[in-house]
Each structure stands twice: as structure tokens, then as C-alpha cells.
Amino acid sequence: MKPIAVTVGDPAGIGPELCVRLAEGSVDLPLVFVGSGAALQEAADSLGRPLQLTPYQAGQAAARQLLDVPTAAPVQPGTLNARNSPAVVEMLERAFDGCAAGEFAAMVTCPVHKGVINDAGIAFTGHTEFLAQRSNTRRVVMLLAAGELRVALATTHLPLSRVSEAIDRSMLSETLKIIEQGLKQRFGIAKPAIAVCGLNPHAGEGGHLGSEERDIITPTVDSLRAAGMRLTGPLPADTAFTPRVLEQHDVVLAMYHDQGLPVLKYVGFGGAVNVTLGLPVVRTSVDHGTALDIAGRGIADPGSLEAALATAVTMAS
Fold it and tell me: Fewest CB within a 10 Å sphere: which of 39, 114, 184, 237?
């Protein structure tokens, strides 16, 4: 397999120490760490761990390589610095471009901090949206997986007040088609079964608690089901996440971020994986943030990063 690019994330967060632990692990894969070599070395020193990375050269067979993206300012674990945000964005660009060019088999991303990137004057709402724009992909889908539980999102990083206006028949139809194709292509599921949540309590209660199900979600689901897709819904979210429904479906589509992800993170936080479906490349990520409160303390758990790497390998294969 070609190397897998692992982006270090915000150097002030736990990304550098997670990468150090991954680099010293027994994973028999060529890895290219994309980010600040100085931040990685400082993390290794604080952990008391050896760090042996070869400078990256395309086509090189070394097991652990570094594609150095220096920061503009010294890194203090736990303390964000907007001066280093351009380097964070650059590491994402370099990893994605390497995947698109065939240098890398996939990219695995450590957490970034959206706020400090915006503080630097760079418009950024998240990895998912950034990579969609970088690849000129009109629509992508965020999916998180924890074991057999998979949750996809119709909308991602939007204020709750804007969710309803973002959901229309065209958008929902495209989203469901991307999910079906992604599960077929990347997860090897021949005929995915998808449970679709409603937006409102009780899935709108026949229009008494909201009209989105009646006017948008139900017609879209019915149309796609008639075309051959395996869809159930719209279901109330508190029904969609019951064991009986979950065991009959390969994925649940939630209408907004906090409708679906609390359940998934309750089940598998620290070992769940974030996947972007619809991109021309394979991208996975950890299920957590920069964890500034524990950065530099040597207690960050690499479980989610290890799971993200394993998922990337499966998807790329």
C-alpha cells in the first residue's frame, strides 16, 4: 500500500502526542506525518519516547516519514496561537493534494481548532467542508462509526436555527445517494439499509409538530425507495436509535449534528471514527477535539486515531 498521510492537527492540542504514540506503534504500514516536526519532537521529549522519522520523499519505502510544515511561532501545548493557523491549513492542503495525486493511499486527520483558524482570518467550518471545497466536490457527507453503529449527518456545523432551511428534497436525495454509494464502495456493503430520522419530535406527528417530514423528508424517502434504495423513515430519533431498529440497518441518517452524535459518542467515544463520504480520496479522522486542557500532559488516548487509521486502510483497500 502507498503511504497514509497523518496530519498532526493543531500543534497546541493533543495531536502531536497522539502522532508520537502512533509512530512508535507496531502498525506495519508506511506512514507520513504531515505537520510541525518541531512540535512532534517536543511531544516526544515530553513523553520520554524516541521519535525516528525520515524526511519525506515521494516513492521512499521508509516506514515512518515526516513532511515538515513549520509553524510561524513556537508551540505551547494547551495555548492556541492564530499565527500558526496557516500552517494547520497548509498541512491539510498538502495531505489532500498528495492523496489526489496518488502519493498517498488515504489521509487521517488529528483534531484542529476551528475558532483559532477563523481568528487568523481564514474562513473554516471544519475538515469536512474544507476538503469538499478543496476537491471541488459539491456535496459530501460526514459519517461517524463506532463498531457496528454508523451515524451520518444531513447537516453538519450549522446553528440549530438554520438547520430547517438547509434541508430540501434535492439536498436530502443527494445525501442519501452519497451514503448508499459510500457504504457500497468504501465499506463493501452490497445493499445498504438506511434509517432516516425526522427533524422534529415524533417525526412531526403528522404535521402537528412540524411540516418538514410531511413536505420534504417523507416524499424524498418514498421516491428513493421506489427507485430501489433500502430506506426506513422518517423515524423519530428516539426510535431510530433503539436496538431493534439499529440491528436492521447499516447506518442512521440524522438531520443535524447533535441529533445523532451524542448517541454515537456515548457508545464509542475514544474509539469512534469520523469518515467523509463523497470525496475523491479516503479521509478519516478522530472523534474528538484538540483537548487543550490535557495537551502536553502525556495522558491523551490514541484509541480513536488508531481506529481512524485502521478504517482508512479498510476503505483504501
Answer: 184
